[in-house]
Please model this.
Amino acid sequence: MSEQTGVAEADRELKQKHRAMWASGDYPALADEMLLELGAVLVEACGITSRQRVLDVAAGTGNAAIPAAMMGAKVVASDLTPELFEAGRKEAANRGVSLDWQEGDAEALPFADEEFDAVMSCIGVMFAPHHQAAADELLRVCKPGGSIGLLNWTPEGFIGQMFATMKPFAPPPPPGAQPGPLWGNEDHVRGLLGGRVTDVRTRKRTLAVRSFHQPADFVRYFKSHYGPIISVYKSLADDQDKVKALDQALTDLADSFGDAHGDSPFQMEWEYLLFTARKA
Model:
């Protein structure tokens, strides 16, 4: 086997693992309960209008793709994990819109050069392991002057810190793979896109999450719903001491990011970076 063939096979295996990870648990339910407003935020920031041709990369259940279709755009929702599309199709039907759902790897998108007026990703492309390859694809399929819109968790925010907390417990990442929350760092994204974009605008915002009564509720819910956490716990199944240690570490993290006063519910603030630009 040649070195190039070996690299290609390793990449295929990595993508298969990613697909299985995101298909595990119940990400559609989690997204529906906690993340719905993020898609609309990104669509507004991108200035999506009717008759535009729009691509949502790593679209999942269509959290951004569906609001874009509601604006009258012609939308393609692409994702490595087509198992997520069923929930997206149902939600699109409930909202009275139609869009095209296509399986696709963010690092090798199955679309022509300069095919779309707008290319966006809402907490999706950040999980592609090779950041430069994914960034190059976002730009390749976007028309000159078209909009690029990204919404990603920041490294210092809750979800970024959740991944940092899990890192010592998780299997080592494959060579060349980069941490997803780096996409929430403005300098990192500017470096990926370089001089190929203009009119860059960035804003840090937070998502208020009120789904949990106490920190331990967050841990229980994510252990059953969120693929990346499910995957780490699966790797620890034979070491109950490490399972308990990770339980405690995640509970402590949720507690440090949460806030409750008196009879008010436990609330968390999850920080994200909103990044928009135009292809030069």
Remarks:
- The two ends are 41 Å apart (CA to CA).
- Residues 3-23 form the longest helix (21 residues).
- The mean pLDDT is 94.
